[in-house]
Amino acid sequence: MKPLFLLLVAFACAGSGMASTVVGVDSYTVVVPPRKQGTPGGRCLAAYSFVGQSIQDAFARVPDRTTLAFWNQQAQGWDAPVRFDAALHAWIEADGAHSVRALLPGTAFFIQNPSETEELRFVVSGTRPTGPVVIALRHGETCATGYAFPVVESASERPSLMVECTGGRYSNSSMGFPARVGDQIRIWDDARQDWVVHTRVDPADSNGLFWTGEGLGVSPTVGVGQGFLIVPAEDKNWIQSESGLFCESRPSVRRSRTQFILHQCWSELCDVADAIRFLTLSSLTAGNPSP
């Protein structure tokens, strides 16, 4: 059997990285509520889940005066928003220059609806990445991110993904976040225009609860195309894969070789080099679960 070679797209939360091999084109729609008159409302925290491209190419058709705000990892705050100028067909920075910002898989950003009466249906589209995406998280540094792979939305609702497998809720749509006690996830509530904070706790010390917040003690869930903030309790690499992670509820549930190896890697908090080694050797390792 030939060895399995997979390309990992690795980048720090700040966003430097390289493009991967790509297959398939998808899109999803982020619905942004209207601004309330005299308030800064009408914002939604979205995530870009496709292969990297410029902001000009990614969002070429949006309403005039739509603004986007991006997280500055080094400054640990939000940059001044960029504004779409329909007359110029361009995104404009706060200093008046045309924006040259690049989007990478998992980039999170605030969308501000320019209308006070109508919701904004913001279409995000592109080419999905292949090979796992590795997001480097550093203790004490907030990271604005999201799931780096698109999931095709149904006609009736946007699907949601569990952040990790916890609390007896089993699904094949977990992001596989390597949570540890003390990790914090902040999810933007569109209706309240405010943050909902979830903190990972030890169930042995918390009456069986895994997370504090509004998730009934289990993992928070995040919609497809929805961004969120992570404040990690320790340095770690979050390895995201297109297939997600199966949360096994019974022995009959089986994982692919790649998922099996990635699960080992997540459990051991391995680094990127380890992940590449695990993935390359996975097809040669006897006794692993079959595809």
Mean pLDDT: 74
What is the ordering of alpha helices and beta strands? EEEEHEEEEEEEEEEEEEEEEHH
What structural class do helix, strand and pairing data support?
Answer: mainly beta
Helix content: under 10%
Overall form: globular
What integer value in Å does the Rg equal?
19 Å
Number of helices: 3
Largest sheet: 6 strands, antiparallel
How is this structure best described in words?
With 291 residues, the protein is mostly beta strands. The chain has one domain. The protein is built from 3 helices and 20 strands. Strand 15 (184-189) and strand 16 form a beta hairpin. It is globular, with a radius of gyration of 19 Å. The two termini are 14 Å apart. The relative contact order is 0.19.
Short description:
The protein has helices spanning 55-58, 257-268, 272-281; strands at 9-12, 22-32, 43-48, 53-54, 67-72, 77-78, 82-85, 90-92, 102-103, 107-112, 120-129, 133-137, 143-145, 160-162, 184-189, 194-200, 211-212, 221-223, 228-231, 236-240.
